Amino acid sequence: MISTGSVVDYAEKVRQLVKPERYEHILRVAELAAQIATANGLDQEKAYLAAILHDAARDLSAERLQQLAPPENDIERQNPLALHGRAGRRLAQEWGIEDEEVLEAIEGHVYGVGPEHKIGMALYIADVSEPGREVNHEIREMALAGQLEEAYQKAVICKVRYLQKKGIEPHPRTWAAYQALRPKTDEP
Ligand SMILES: [Fe+2]
User: Fold this and answer.
1) Residues 65/110, Cβ–Cβ less than 8 Å
2) 81 CA distance to ligand 1 centroid (A)?
């Protein structure tokens, strides 16, 4: 059980690290992630907390990002922003978060998560479809209608196609998340 007091404290820590417009995004993602969790029978407090923390490292300097999350491949070396999920996980750990579902969701909001990480899926969907982004309404509605996995699959496919269209090589873990998607045709 995550106490309300601690969520407020974490939110304040995050607010001090990010730009005001980022903080507004974070609050919208948190509201939506909690709604998606409820609609899919997941722990809404965990989803809310993961969302509050997900972009904690997003506005840090490249140096600080690299310090918190040393790059592991060329994509990360060339684009320090790709590190902000893993760096956010480190910050959350430093602040005392131990819940693996929450930590995995924070890290995975950038690359995607494995099929067993439902809180991570709720956060991933909320991040790409929160109302302020003005895109992916369909994905949001699917998730709010209880179709978490379908909505997540759609979100990952959209991301990979978007990157491919722009000629950007997806991060190996984005590829892994994409390839881990169960093809719809395999469903009974
Ligand atoms: Fe992010």
Assistant:
1) no
2) 9
